[in-house]
Amino acid sequence: MALCGYSLKRLCAVLSPLPLFRAVQIFEWIKKGAHDFSGMTDIPLGMRQELATRFSLFDSTVQTQRSDSTGTTKIGFKLRDGAIIESVLLIDQKGRSTACLSSQVGCPLGCTFCKTGSMGFVRNLKSAEIIEQFVQLHAGRESIDNVVFMGMGEAFLNSDALFESLDILCTDWHISPRRITVSTAGVAAGIAMLSAQKYDIRLAFSLTTADSQLRERLMPITKTNPLPLIKEALCNYQTHHKQRITLELVLLKNVNTRPDDIQALISFAHGLNVVVNIIPWNTVEGISLQKPTNSEIHSFAQALEHAGLNVTRRFGRGSSLSAACGQLGYRQ
Ligand code: SF4
Q1: Is 111 a pocket residue for ligand 1 (Cβ < 6 Å)?
Q2: What residues does 123 pair with on adjacent strands?
């Protein structure tokens, strides 16, 4: 049994009848990046040896780890059942770190531009498997500044584990909720659950296009969770949380960059406090879409800005590692 993915409360229960302060010591060592019990010098040697016979700290093993010149690191983890997932640590130009976590092995939603979607769905991750990714990315660092649920899978389709993980990150790891973002392809029930949370967790909606017919083709979830339903859920979230919502727009050359897409987006954003994050599509082997040209990206962004929208552009950090948005999806 591995300990690092647990909440402190659960850790105390698992280690019982050891006193609470022992669980706190072990938790602090996990935070400091310990990979086994041997270096936990404030715990008596005999106790460390006994703990090592009963428990391990990690269930997953690092299968692959690669970094690039932008400071992005992509890690492939092998889980206990042999399933493989990927997580990414991004470092921005100011040195701030962001852990991008996966919530599922594969994804059932099949968005046509996404590598994970092309893998199909294998299973949901347990909350401990989600937290283990965070702990592994955290190891060797003072802290992690931001956490985003934008890795493999649709987090709201694994809501029990998602909300348990959010609770552990906020309560035990003291990550500010405002530094955590859950991204969704558009699961209205999940947005409603997030709205009902006490924490002010940030929300990103992967819109891609506000043209419903085109979106149904690119993101089949639109058929069961149509855009008017999502808009209602987003308005409800903002009534409760006052947080600006990120609308993520994966731009695909000659697909969702038409004037009609711009108009539909402006109208969808009306009444919401949003920032539009433009993400030029990152090439994925086997998917016959194309990256937009720079002038296509520029004109698209400019049209939105002229309409008064806040726009940011994300330029493929990690794309050389296939660690950028939509490129995660390890195959065994
Ligand atoms: S974009 Fe997100 S929701 Fe869509 S298939 Fe990929 S991982 Fe799943």
Answers
A1: yes
A2: 105
Q: Same structural domain for residues 114 and 27?
A: no
- Whether 107 is a known active-site residue: answer no
Which pTM was predicted? 0.94
Check residue 159 and give its pLDDT.
Answer: 98
* Domain membership flag for residue 3: no
In a 3-state reduction of DSSP, which class is residue 9?
Answer: helix
Give distance in angstroms: CA of 261 to centre of ligand 1: 20
Same domain, 132 and 35: no
Cα Rg for the chain, rounded, in angstroms? Answer: 21
pLDDT at residue 318, as a whole number: 60
Q: For residue 140, what is the DSSP state?
A: T
Q: How far apart are CA 197 and CA 163, in angstroms?
A: 9
Note the pLDDT tens digit of each residue in 110-134: 999 998 888 899 999 999 999 999 9
pLDDT digits (tens, 9 = 90+) for 236-252: 999 999 899 999 999 99
Domain boundaries, position 75: 61-321
Handedness of CA 287, 293, 298, 300 (dihedral sign): negative
Which residue is catalytic, options 4, 12, 86, 111? Answer: 86
Ligand 1 center–CA 272 separation, angstroms? 23
> Ligand 1 center to residue 114 CA distance, Å?
6
The tally of domains found in the chain comes to: 2
In a domain, 126, yes or no: yes
- Taking 90 as the threshold, does the pLDDT of residue 1 lie above it? no
Candidate from 111, 119, 156 with most ligand 1 atoms within 8 A of CB, to mutate: 111
Q: Is 284 in the pocket of ligand 1 (CB under 6 A)?
A: no
For residue 324, pLDDT over 90 is answered with no
- We report the CATH number of the domain holding residue 316 as 3.20.20.70
